[in-house]
Design brief:
Layout lengths: L2 H5 L3 H15 L5 H12 L5 H17 L5 H36 L4 E2 L2 E2 L1 H5 L1 H21 L3 H23 L8 H26 L4 H28 L2 H4 L5 H4 L5 H9 L3 H8 L5 H12 L2 H20 L7 H16 L3
Antiparallel strand pairs: 1-2
Helix pairs in contact: 2-5, 4-5, 4-9, 4-10, 4-17, 5-7, 5-8, 5-9, 8-9, 9-10, 10-16, 10-17, 13-16, 16-17
Length: 340
């Protein structure tokens, strides 16, 4: 199933989020800022994090229906929808800011098949823009007046930045352990996915079991998402990725696919030799070929399946509904990305 089909039941809410993004970033009085933010919004990504907040809120609302009268739910629905739109937009802004800073760190020139902000306007503008997006995001969250949600997203954002920092510090560490990699992934990527699902449940005051279930779903979804991303960076083509492949290789960042290749190969020294040549395209292509033709690819897919299964199992505490099935469809979408 494609994202378009999964998003169909929440198209109105996603449209409201898109409008909120344009409204929030269009409030500036400066033409120079508006030019850059409009470019950024036009080069939109998959909007998975806002979708997860929306779907989690609706799945939680269904799960809570038996605990509150329908009248109470209807009275709260309007207020919740306004908060939902602001928070979903805010989390997307946090994600966008992190990508802008990532592109600077990775010296990237392409994203979503369009030139990156740093490529078009330079690093100075990109750093300032990333900071600006973070500020706008937390202004939106603060306007909702919910300190628990503010704390949840703040904690996830801190973890995301910490994970990125550790990843940069671990570059060229050819002795990186799988467990260390997973800790980085949980912080850098999975934390914001977990927060997206968690705040969705918090918005409708779901009980702690439902909140923890959705948080666990988001965490495991996020880990699987990053492993898929790392795998695609190694095996996909530029057109499919929307950016140049081999970014991790060029920056000396060891990802799970490469760690599996090192552990599965009979000629570890040959792989290590390739990893020491990040500036050579021929070295990357040889590494790619070795990975595709090795047990490492199968092992990486096994890990993706493991976290996808854990994400699905986390939903056992959620009542059946079309929105719960949408959450399941989203993890199945990850499987389809690597054609498992």
């Amino acid at each position: 199933m494609q994202l378009k089909e999964i998003y169909q039941p929440i198209q109105k809410e996603l449209s409201d989020v898109e409008q909120m993004l344009r409204c929030s970033l269009g409030a500036s009085k400066y033409e120079s800022i508006l030019e850059i933010t409009n470019y950024l919004l036009d080069a939109k990504g998959k909007r998975i994090r806002p979708a997860l907040i929306i779907i989690s809120t609706k799945a939680s609302r269904r799960a809570s229906a038996s605990q509150r009268s329908l009248l109470q739910l209807r009275l709260k629905k309007g207020a919740v929808n306004i908060q939902l739109t602001k928070i979903a937009a805010a989390i997307e802004l946090v994600h966008m800011a992190s990508l802008i800073h990532d592109d600077i760190i990775d010296h990237a020139s392409l994203r979503h098949n369009k030139p990156t902000v740093n490529y078009k306007w330079g690093n100075d503008v990109s750093i300032a823009l990333g900071d600006y997006l973070y500020a706008v995001a937390f202004e939106l969250i603060s306007a909702c007046g919910n300190s628990d949600i503010l704390e949840c997203i703040s904690s996830a954002t801190k973890g995301m930045c910490e994970g990125e920092l550790v990843q940069v510090c671990e570059r060229d560490n050819l002795n990186l352990l799988k467990q260390r990699y997973l800790v980085m992934v949980q912080k850098k990527t999975a934390a914001l996915f977990a927060a997206s699902c968690h705040v969705g449940a918090m918005l409708v005051n779901s009980n702690r079991d439902i909140q923890e279930a959705l948080k666990g779903y988001g965490l495991n979804f996020g880990i699987a998402f990053q492993i898929v991303d790392d795998c695609l960076d190694l095996v996909s083509r530029k057109k499919e990725l929307g950016k140049s492949p081999g970014a991790d290789f060029k920056m000396g960042e060891l990802t799970l696919p490469v760690l599996h290749l090192l552990s599965q190969t009979k000629d570890k020294n040959a792989v290590l030799s390739l990893l020491k040549q990040p500036d050579r395209q021929s070295a990357f292509l040889t590494l790619k070929k070795r990975f595709i033709n090795s047990e490492a690819l199968l092992k990486t897919k096994e890990d993706i399946r493991h976290y996808i299964q854990k994400a699905k199992e986390s939903l056992d505490a959620i009542s059946d509904s079309s929105f719960k099935r949408s959450l399941i469809a989203l993890v199945d979408f990850l499987m389809e990305r690597v054609r498992l």
